[in-house]
Specification:
Number of strands: 29
Largest sheet: 7 strands, mixed
Structural class: mainly beta
Number of helices: 8
Radius of gyration: 26 Å
Shape: globular
Strand content: 35-45%
């Protein structure tokens, strides 16, 4: 089984009892639906009920999950007409001979048969003892922002490697967040099985796991008492409606920002109208050689449109022109030069799709070309690489932390989803943050770091693999605004255009802290000089 072939991949599933979480059943069903994969049995242990009691946690945890946990966390009995259920101590086990075991148990003992050729896959969430219970609950109680979940592979030599990892943002709405986490993790074993059928044993090579695979206990009663306060602490910490988002111009190529000593002397346009904002800039050079900047223009009433501006040498703009206005809200634009003209990708959450437009000959409007994908991408990115066109962006339920991709032979062709589905979930380096570029033969992808609410900067990721079946990148360089900048509180976008880079910067409307007068100090009268 070292090289993929026509043989069926035989999988055995293991759990504590025949009663399991609904999302676990969904993961097994998705795995069984992969071509040339067969779930040969569902094993359970004699001492499983004791481990399940440990997993249930204390009284408050059991009461809270019974009232508030999402449907994915509820339990159901495995259907014997759908899967072959076998006790681990049964004599039937010796004849199973699976290639792989998907272990869903809560810290089960050794396998009742020799180690399979492809080892054991197990979900691992959280870290150490603080890893049991509903995904993200421990992190919320500890007021942490990210829940880390992994699909870990353990080989016959005992070496553990990470097959798949997700870093999920945690907010105050723990039930909805946990449901989204479990829905995403449901697809992981099936994705890895497809990748194995395509790439062979190389697909099982990943970074070494630095955490154990035995789940911890759910939060105790004393810790659960702090849940209401922890939820309040995570509310209202993001960007506000009065924060100023504006466009800046950096007269340097984008690739120069790979240098840690690179200049960040960004010149921003004049401030937008009070309550308005300019964001998500992308640009192109028109037939007369003039710089045109497309951006999302948000009016004080909250409605947005796609506008165009022509910054002068001194960064002054006289007026902007509306290029696209719809009855509903529009998303971020992304412009790209193609053989058929200047194309613009716009994802629209209100319409539920991502569309392709063309800048008209008069450079006054965006003409609709076609719908690219029937989902509303956030921060869409369109670029060529290795003979293909790639469309990337973020999607709900993780609009600030996910990366999805489609590929095609041309921008106006048929778009096919990447085999992995969700390429990445990480608020620190997933959502696109600018123009992918090649420097010294290496593909780099800018991404937004939104791990801390109310803060944003760009991370430059080195892409190691990008094809229709595989994707791997690593964060290398962070690009943060200078403290002396007119917009020192964040950079969300870096759009490269030859010798210059367009920047999306933010200046927060932070409350001023007035110093309290010292006891007994005399107050000056208004207008009186000291």
């Amino acid at each position: 089984m070292d090289v993929p072939g026509d043989d069926t991949l035989r999988v055995a599933v293991r759990s504590d009892t025949p009663v399991v979480r609904q999302w676990h059943v969904g993961a097994v069903r998705a795995l069984a639906a992969v071509p040339a994969v067969e779930v040969v049995s569902w094993l359970y242990d004699d001492d499983g009920p004791r481990r399940r009691t440990r997993e249930a946690g204390g009284l408050l945890h059991r009461w809270w999950t019974a009232r508030h946990a999402p449907a994915e966390w509820r339990t159901e009995r495995v259907d014997p007409t759908e899967f072959r259920i076998v006790r681990a101590a049964s004599t039937e086990v010796a004849a199973l001979r699976p290639h792989l075991v998907l272990d869903l148990s809560h810290g089960a003992a050794t396998l009742p048969f020799p180690a399979p050729e492809l080892g054991v896959w197990r979900y691992v969430g959280g870290a150490g003892r603080r890893s049991g219970g509903l995904p993200g609950l421990w992190e919320l109680l500890l007021r942490e922002r990210v829940h880390v979940a992994r699909l870990v592979h353990t080989g016959g030599d005992g070496l553990r490697t990470v097959l798949h990892e997700g870093r999920f943002p945690i907010g105050p709405e723990i039930a909805a967040g946990a449901a989204a986490i479990m829905q995403e993790m449901t697809a992981w074993p099936a994705r890895m099985a497809r990748l194995y059928r395509h790439a062979g044993a190389e697909a099982l090579v990943g970074p070494r796991a630095v955490v154990g695979t035995t789940p911890g206990r759910p939060p105790g009663d004393l810790r659960m008492l702090g849940l209401p306060m922890a939820r309040r602490a995570l509310r209202g910490t993001g960007f506000g409606p009065n924060d100023e988002w504006n466009i800046g111009v950096l007269h340097r190529p984008l690739h120069t920002l790979l240098d840690e000593e690179a200049s960040l002397n960004i010149r921003y346009l004049p401030a937008p109208a009070p309550g308005g904002r300019r964001s998500a800039p992308s640009g192109y050079i028109d037939a007369l050689g003039r710089l045109n900047v497309l951006y999302r223009k948000t009016r004080p009433d909250g409605r947005s449109e796609i506008a165009r501006a022509r910054p002068k040498q001194d960064n002054v703009i006289k007026r902007s022109r509306t290029m696209l206005a719809t009855p509903t809200d529009v998303g971020d634009p992304y412009a790209v030069h193609t053989r058929t003209g200047i194309m613009v990708v716009v994802g629209s959450p209100s319409s539920g799709r991502t569309d392709l437009y063309r800048v008209d000959d008069a450079n006054e409007h965006l003409e609709f070309v076609r719908t690219l994908v029937p989902v509303p991408l956030r921060s869409p990115t369109l670029f060529p690489h290795a003979g293909r066109w790639w469309l990337m962006g973020a999607l709900d339920p993780f609009p600030t932390a996910s990366l999805h991709a489609w590929w095609s032979d041309s921008p106006e062709g048929d778009w096919r989803p990447h085999a992995l589905g969700t390429l990445k979930v990480d608020p620190a380096s997933a959502r696109p943050g600018g123009t992918p570029f090649v420097h010294d033969g290496v593909l780099w992808r800018p991404a937004q770091d939104l791990a801390q609410p109310g803060h944003v900067h760009v991370v430059l990721n080195r892409v190691h693999h990008l094809d229709p079946h595989r994707f791997h990148e690593e964060p290398v360089r962070e690009v943060r605004p200078r403290a002396s900048s007119s917009h020192p509180h964040g950079i969300a976008m870096l759009f490269g255009m030859g010798g210059l880079t367009l920047v999306d910067g933010v200046r927060r409307d932070l409350p001023r802290i007035e110093k309290a007068p010292k006891p007994g100090a005399r107050r000056r009268k208004p207008g009186r000089r000291p």
